[in-house]
Amino acid sequence: MSKFWATFKLTYSKKLKSKAFIITTIFMILVIVLGANIDKIASMFQGDDNQKIGIITQDQSLYQAIQSQGERLNEETNYSRMTEREAKAKIKDESLDKAYMITESKDHLLSAQILTREASTQSDKAELSAILSQIQTQKVASDLGLSATNLQQLQREVSVQDQLVSNSDKSSYNTNKEEEVFSKIIVMVGTFMMFFIILTYAQQIAMELATEKVSRVSEMIITSVKPTIHILAKISAVLTVALTQILVLGVTSVVAYVAFDLQDKLSELDIHLTGHMIRLIIFAVIFLILGVLTYVILASIFGNLTARIEDMAQSMMPLNLLMIAAFYAGYFGAMNPNSMIIKVLSYVPFFSPFVTLTRMSLPETPTFEGIIVIVIHMILIGLLIWIAAKTYRNAVLTFEKGVIKSLKRVIPKKS
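Now predict its structure.
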């Protein structure tokens, strides 16, 4: 056991101090910090909110309505009524940011042009369109003799919710739009995190084992350490490095949540943790760990079978293709988790960590479905560990070119 820990500590320390680990960790920490302050960063690039906007119209009441609606959206914006000639002159000498030229038909239908020194942004056009649409609706409603109450009733949105009825008992479950969106966010974040962690550490473990083999270090190792102990220590160390990085990012997220007042921002989105959300988060963590374990151990098998460093990309291609297929199945499965192909793939090994996570985003998906997948993958992980130990032991002194030839060499032939 002491030899296991010696190999484990050496590999863990080396990976933890590597430039790749430090750079990727710092990069992801910066992404989290920037994401927590995205509203402040966006406001920095929006420029000065204290804009001066001219209104070109013949109707004083229309000007007052636009001014009232505009100041309701942004109190710091200053509006002033002027002629087209005055507006163009002030825009040229930069004493005016922009001007709205408003025309009104006999039927109270409004149209507008934006006068600016530069091309208008889509947000500027959308903001003006929203202001004028509200005013136009009020004018048309007034012509039709509709009261303010009648207008509110016409504009009121229809509320639509899901009510999921269980087949097994009397219970039912209501879902809302916010919960559905938050569920998809959890699935997307979990899927992307799983993909990039696997991509990073699967390559590392395969390269670690192949480098030892090519440099003939393995010939010295097997004289002092059992191959099974050595390979398990290597895999455990790389997995622990991955978990360390996840822990660092988790702590960073918690610190960012507290330090940058993210609670107020989330409360504005009306997001609450329900029983379904808690279940989804728990399964997301479990599938993240299972997915990383599965693919990293599989990568170690390919590393064992690689005789030359230059063959590493070719050796890892089957794993990369499998992982990309599973990633896209999970990603696009989030759009329609109830499709038959997603239901089938949720039980397929190597696909299930990505795909079953999308299935669990549906409240009607039974919990036992996720438990079955967990059991399947735990059995698969045990089988992969056995294969990894066997291939390392049998291939440690094998230098055949190509994965297929190496695999044939390490498989014992029947006499």
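The CA atoms of residues 271 and 314 lie 46 Å apart.
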